[in-house]
Amino acid sequence: MRTGMLAVTVMLGILATGLAGAAERPVAPNGIVLPERYRGWQAIAPSYRPDKDHIRVILGNETAVKALQEGIRPFPDGAVLAKIAWTTRKHPKFPVAVEPDKFVQVEFMIRDGAKYRETGGWGFARFVGNELKPYGKDPSFALECLGCHTPVKENDYVFTSWPPVPGPR
Amino acid sequence: MRTGMLAVTVMLGILATGLAGAAERPVAPNGIVLPERYRGWQAIAPSYRPDKDHIRVILGNETAVKALQEGIRPFPDGAVLAKIAWTTRKHPKFPVAVEPDKFVQVEFMIRDGAKYRETGGWGFARFVGNELKPYGKDPSFALECLGCHTPVKENDYVFTSWPPVPGPR
Q1: Cβ contacts of residue A147 below 8 Å, gap of 6+?
Q2: Which residues of B touch A53 (CB under 8 A)?
């Protein structure tokens, strides 16, 4: 009986936490909620966009990292990639180095081959600025994302590679 | 008795694994062994060095990340920062994006205020190229590292900041 009550209490606790968390999280027009704890995912690679004056880091959850490391295509369902972009500045004490300045946006690709069949098997989302404003007016915004990713269709619509690092892990 | 034998077997197994692992790992002239599993540490920030044509990602273990997030200075003992550098290339399918090409080196700063008192409380190490060749001929190489980091002495010799990311974690 005590175990039963404990289980119910724990479940209610988890439910309450989940609801509170979800309430704070922005939602893209295709229903994608800003993923939790993505900032702690493993770094895949940095990138730099001189045309936009952006510097970026691409992160992946465990499923995405494993697929990249092992060259698995298509990516398995559950793989999620995140790309955080900042404007750049010259390091104040070392101006030959270009580093992040202000937050620009964070973008996601969430793999679910059935759910997102119309956009290459990927759910796209972008959250912009310090308000993390969801990009797009309706779910069709994701077709724009897919359009830009079409040049890498043969790589399952993913631009980023796993960059080489030698030696023991 | 069976439990005892199991424990011994497990311990010998761990010992053997540890020795095999250590044997493969390069050692800097100041005794710093290439840290294990650093590639999985959390991403702190990307950086770009147009003067060297390098793109980089700076990673940190939990102690280092916490200190950066919370502005703790000096860094506590046990904090370790890693910086991986690659040469750059234009993305073959999207040439406005600059991404990693070939591995250049990986560098470390390991905090131990007493052990590394002569180099600002930090143990420095650099492993270069696909052979991960330790940089420096003798332990004095670390004075060169310290020299370059002196402009950020007031930030405990660390160049990298925790870049802003808004919203819930």
Answers
A1: none
A2: none
